[in-house]
Design goal:
By secondary structure, the chain is of the alpha+beta class. It is built from nine helices and ten strands. A hairpin with a 5-residue loop joins strand 3 and strand 4. Helix 6 runs antiparallel to helix 9.
Length: about 280
């Protein structure tokens, strides 16, 4: 399905590895995401796509979809993409969208491509939910972000060089689009067998209130961890279960972060005596 954004970019939804845009999207993604703990393999993406047509998993977890959207300019050149997961959360009375990867060609930045891709992903999520007769509101948008406070100098420098944006500036970019950090010690389970969990990320949410019910976060993360990250493992993940166990029922998770804090953080990580924290909270 193709749509034309008011900015002039053309968007095409990719729901499987055989779609024409998938190879180009993966190649662009592969150039930008290089940190070992945060990158997904082609085989991993293909397995996640296979769950879109797995009736047993759709029954167990509720409606969900692994999706990409490609952005092309007026000449047809690929300029960016977004990979996201859509989940219906019947036990929480809502739906959620997890932005897994959002990326643009470094030579094409500053044109609003990433913001347009975010809007397009939310619109596509609502369209798919409505087509299945499921409520499309509220739709909670989550994403993960590297936490400069937890990164070594080497990891910070590599992230900045390969992504083409300073990690603190990236936090400011997401903050300006309504995303706030959830005040919790977040760990992403290993993306591939034999890999390490990623302990240098935060979980973020586009939300205007000061906190969100932990039951919504838990419902979302259970699906994100066991479908998108762990790919339907044969046994529970200790890393995933520790994060989920900390989301106590009937409690709220506060949201935090500000432009002033991220600007101060940029100065702090640039100081010669900076040392990464072991955890945020």
């Amino acid at each position: 399905m193709e749509s034309l954004n008011h900015s002039g970019f053309r968007f095409c939804v990719v729901d499987g590895p055989l779609a024409p845009d998938y190879a180009g999207l993966y190649a662009l993604y592969d150039r930008i995401f290089t940190l070992p703990d945060e990158r997904e393999s082609d085989a991993g993406f293909r397995k996640a796509f296979s769950f879109n047509t797995d009736p047993e998993l759709q029954q167990r977890y509720g409606a969900f979809a692994e999706l990409w959207i490609a952005a092309r300019d007026e000449h047809g050149a690929l300029v960016g993409g977004i990979n996201f997961d859509l989940f219906h959360l019947p036990e929480a009375g809502c739906a959620s969208l997890h932005v897994v990867y959002l990326f643009t060609d470094p030579l094409q930045r500053g044109q609003g491509i990433a913001t347009a891709l975010l809007d397009e992903a939310a619109a596509e999520a609502r369209r798919r939910l409505s087509e299945r007769g499921l409520p499309s509101r509220p739709l909670y948008l989550f994403c993960e972000q590297n936490a400069p406070e937890l990164m070594t100098r080497e990891a910070y420098a590599r992230d900045r060089a390969d992504a083409g944006i300073d990690p603190c500036r990236r936090l400011i970019w997401w903050h300006r689009r309504g995303f706030r950090r959830l005040r919790m010690n977040y760990v992403q389970p290993p993306l591939d067998e034999g890999a390490d969990p990623c302990r240098t990320m935060t979980l973020n949410l586009r939300f205007t209130k000061r906190s969100i019910a932990s039951s919504i976060v838990a419902a979302h993360l259970r699906r994100f961890f066991y479908l998108s990250v762990l790919k339907n493992p044969s046994a529970p993940s200790p890393d995933a279960e520790r994060v989920l166990a900390a989301l106590t029922p009937d409690h709220n998770v506060p949201l935090t972060g500000s432009l002033a804090y991220y600007r101060q953080l940029a100065r702090r990580v640039a100081a010669p005596d900076f040392e990464p924290q072991s955890q945020l909270y």
